[in-house]
Design a protein that fits this description.
It is globular and about 50 Å long. The protein is built from 15 helices and two strands. The protein has a two-stranded antiparallel ribbon with strand order 1-2. About 70% of the residues lie in helices and about 0% in strands. It has one domain: Farnesyl Diphosphate Synthase (Orthogonal Bundle). The longest helix is centred in the C-terminal third of the chain and has 28 residues, at about 200-230.
Length: about 300
């Protein structure tokens, strides 16, 4: 049974975990809780949880141990999307084919919903029954996800991305932003599963790091391409928004041909990093092709 056939099961699994841990919309403060659920349960490809579970399969970590890390990372991702969409940031009106949180509710409620997701993510890591009795793993997970989302990760990358609007960057500068803004949380998704595994050899850990580093860059380059070529139905966002804001993206700075070549090159690098591993890593290989090529087969 291929990972492709299990991917929908994992997506359904993380939806159940998120639904269970998010506050009910009927509980006060209702509008805040409605906004949290709107943003976190509003669809999406669930790429980060899929990476958590695929890595867990490779390292023989039971899914129930991975539920809290996968959900915590997805909550941090949802938090970042709410903030990215705000008028003070990217000022987007659509996300996942629906009005962004600040359009569906209001800016203050959207900000508070995002803020509330951060402590909820860490609460899950501290209290999930499957992680009780694994204090070393819990500490690693907290440190890993916090670092991925701070000034050395998503927040720092977003700051640099905003500062780069209208500027000419070289490829190394642009890819550094990508590594922080997008890559660090994808890296955390892979390393979170490794943090829950028993005695992962250093060579395996380094291979996983090389895999996800290349994959994170490829994912963002592909997103840049889809901003130009993808339809709103495909991306869930307003097409061409990056170009309209004169954002620093691979196609905008270096041309579409070079962007496609770079995405393909990075995908090969990611897959090559797993070359020494057997069928147990096929889930990660599938996830890489899905993330970059957007093909589920």
């Amino acid at each position: 049974m291929s990972f492709a056939s299990r991917a929908d099961e994992y997506v359904a699994r993380i939806e159940r975990v998120l639904d269970h841990h998010l506050p009910a919309a009927e509980v006060a403060p209702r509008r805040l809780h409605e906004a949290m659920r709107y943003a976190a349960l509003g669809g999406g490809k669930r790429i980060r949880p899929l990476l958590v579970y695929a890595t867990g399969e490779a390292l023989l970590v039971p899914p129930e141990v991975l539920d809290a890390p996968a959900a915590a990372i997805e909550l941090m991702h949802a938090f970042s999307l709410i903030h990215d969409d705000l008028p003070a940031m990217d000022n987007d009106d659509l996300r996942r084919g629906r009005p962004t949180a600040h359009r569906a509710f209001d800016e203050a409620t959207a900000i508070l919903a995002a803020d509330a997701m951060q402590p909820l993510a860490f609460e899950m890591l501290a209290t999930q029954p499957a992680l009780i009795g694994m204090p070393a793993a819990q500490v690693k997970l907290v440190a890993l996800i916090a670092d991925a989302c701070g000034s050395n990760g998503m927040a720092g990358g977003q700051s640099m991305d905003l500062a780069a609007e209208g500027r000419r960057l070289d490829p190394a500068e642009l890819e550094h932003i990508y590594r922080l803004k997008t890559g660090r949380l994808l890296r955390a998704s892979v390393l979170a599963a490794a943090s829950c595994a028993t005695a992962v050899p250093d060579a395996t850990l380094h291979a996983l790091e090389r895999f996800v580093d290349a994959l994170g860059l490829a994912f963002q380059v592909r997103d840049d391409i889809l901003d130009i070529e993808g339809s709103t139905a495909e991306t869930g966002k307003t097409g061409g928004s990056d170009q309209a804001k004169d954002k620093a993206t691979y196609p905008h700075l270096f041309g579409m041909l070079r962007a496609r070549q770079r995405a393909d090159e990075l995908l090969l690098q990611a897959l090559d990093a797993l070359g020494a591993f057997g069928p147990g890593y096929d889930g990660l290989r599938w996830a890489a092709r899905y993330i970059v090529l957007r093909q589920r087969a």
